[in-house]
Amino acid sequence: MKNLIKIFLSFTLFYVFVEQNVVHAQDERASVLIEEVITTARKKEESEQEVPLAVTALSSEQLEVQKVRNITELVSVPNVSLDDIGTQRGVPNFQIRGLGHNSSIASIESPVAMIVDGVYVGNGTVMDSFDLASVEILRGPQGTIIGKNAIGGAVLLNSKNPGDEWESQVRLAMDGFGSPGATNSMMQFASGGPVSDIIKVRGVLYINDNQGWFNNSFDNTHHGAHENTMFRGTVVADPTDSLNINVKYSTQETSGDGVSSQCFSLVPTDLQCFGLIQDRDSFDLSINEKGFIEQDTETLTIKAVQDVMLGDGQITYLYGSSTTESEAMGDIDGTRLFIFHAPAKTQDESSTYEIRFNGSFGNMDLLAGYYSYTRDLTYHEMRILPNTLGGTEWNGGGDLSVDSTAFFATAEFPIGDNLVLDLGIRSTEEDKNVSVASLSAGAAALAAGILDAPRNIYFLAGRDPSLIQRTSDASCQIFLGGCVRDFIDNDSWSSTSPRIGLTYFPDDNTTIYGYVADGYRSGGYNMRNTAILQLTPDKGPGPFDQEKLQTLEVGMKRILNNGRLNLAFFSSELTDMQRTLNEAGPAGPVQYIKNTGDATISGFEADVVLLLQNDFVFNASLGTLDAGYDEVVYDISQDGVVDSVDLNLMLPRAADLTYSLGLSRDFMVANWSASARVAYSYRDEVAYSDNNLGMIGEQNILDLGVDFYSPSENFSFGFYGKNLNDSVKHGNVSPVSWGSFSPLMPGKIIGVEAVLSF
């Protein structure tokens, strides 16, 4: 009830405030929210309102009006949450239609694909929205066009290209006022345009200095600090009238504090966080290890588009490569004591090749292409337990290589008046090779008193555990080929992802569609193996099988006289579900992946945008999910039997209800124009762990913002408030033997910004 009162008062005060202004705006910005966005969901440019699938596309102007500064702030999309997992900064934990990634294990693919400038980047890195041309959120499965690991859907991020005229922009912002910790400052600069008749360039520089939103009561210091520097350069060349070449290079460096981990008790039988009492609905933080994160990422994307006479079409060649190196240390116990700290190091390299043809032959539009993806991952994770818990150092990780190839084709052709049939198919082959060093390797021998057996567990023998900060301090070195590799394997998977759909256009403003499509999530291996293979081989690295989703979706998209209305209903059959099961263990969370059974997820989505006046826009969205297991073949509840208890568990990350409301209004203040917005979004409580012990609380997010624009339109300043309800959000809630490992996300953010364009 308190939240409803806050929402009502906020929307009322917003309306009263803007109505007190005598003059309406001459240059309406709010009205951009009803404009159609061009989407590339099917690897060609189409209107968002005509593409026959549920897609939410936002242009750079719409992102600006809604004050979106980071893609995790896109909370108004029904049945979608774009969260950060919290375990390591920037690792996405996206969920679409009840399908999400509930682990930070680097070797496991998310069911929601991230695509940056057309290139699949897997789990990727959560990005700031500065200098994005558009964001597209596609509901899944998207297996025919995008490929594996898009059964939940895909998030497409498209950066800006240089325009036909030289333009520059600089944005300065500072926020965090009133937070428990310190402030956060940002500088963003972009400049670009033509340098000759055939070449255009654009450069982007982003610098973020966050002093830490949280207060760590252990030593009364700020926590959550990070420094982030990103550069992206783009060169576009048109050497002939029929050839366009686009080259993008970016580099990003991040350093800062480790995970802001909170501990609270989940069950009466755990160790109650060793006496540390913290309210899970608060931002209480009290950890004795500050931790750190250091991450460097480089990406290169080359896209060449050649017009051809065949089918009046285009041949597109796309190459992308990415290299990420990161090192981190985290306080996983989340308490004032040294219980479980975890250094880690990762090197992840991937490359993508794609060549495709788009063309028309009579009434048929054809897309056909070949795709190749490779990945090489090396990973070392440590778990440090102090002398009070045996004084041990655990090491694990290993090497993974992935090779994936695919052929895909789609065809669209009319079969009657205003009726279009679309058919598609994708055939994928994937090979994985793995060499795993189990964290538990040698545990059985040590328990038996055999001290000279090969192992990855070492006694500290008087070493100060607090001085073990990096994997270079480890007694065995995975990056040098060391540590016991007790699991070496390879496996292959193949899949075929068909799609058949019908689209009906009863008039120029309405699209009615329906389709059935299949998609797959990659099978693979768990490189974070804590199981003792001699005792519990069923909880080892794998392999686990690929996961399949078949979806029936029907929808309607309608352009109204003063806005648009989109509706969609879907029903999905999920088979061979991949679940990352979390158990409490002697050395922290025990995670293992199993194909646990089958489930059905169905739901409804609606979003509407209405132009109430030329300068007054209302938008709303609603998403519902009905998710449940049809069959369970593994003891998910961990009570020793597979029965109705397992069958009645909630599916992780599947929120029954999401909705949002928003108002945007333009007005005048003297000869300055202004734009204001208020938005509220809600998401139900969701299970994080499969046994439903770890739950992520409901979200009530209230945002406000107002910007003022000079008469020349080249300067603006504004104020913004994010999560003004101070809604507590955890990246995950994982059971551990002493309580929970629950990384905190920042709460209320109040800030100011200034933008100069020239």
Describe the structure.
- With 758 residues, this protein is mainly beta.
- It has a single domain, classed as Maltoporin, Chain A, CATH 2.40.170.
- 4% of the residues lie in helices and 54% in strands.
- It is built from four helices and 42 strands.
- The chain has a 22-stranded antiparallel beta barrel.
- A hairpin with a 4-residue loop joins strand 19 and strand 20.
- The two termini are 47 Å apart.
- The mean pLDDT is 91.
Provide a concise account of the structure shown.
By secondary structure, the chain is mainly beta.
The SS-based structural class is: mainly beta
Number of helices: 4
Number of domains: 1
What overall geometry do the principal axes of the alpha carbons give? globular
Corresponding CATH superfamily: TonB-dependent receptor, beta-barrel domain
- What is the highest CATH level, the class? Mainly Beta
User: Could you tell me how far the N terminus lies from the C terminus, measured between alpha carbons in angstroms?
Assistant: 47 Å
Q: What oligomeric state do these chains adopt?
A: single chain
The percentage of residues in β strands lies in over 45%
CATH topology: Maltoporin, Chain A
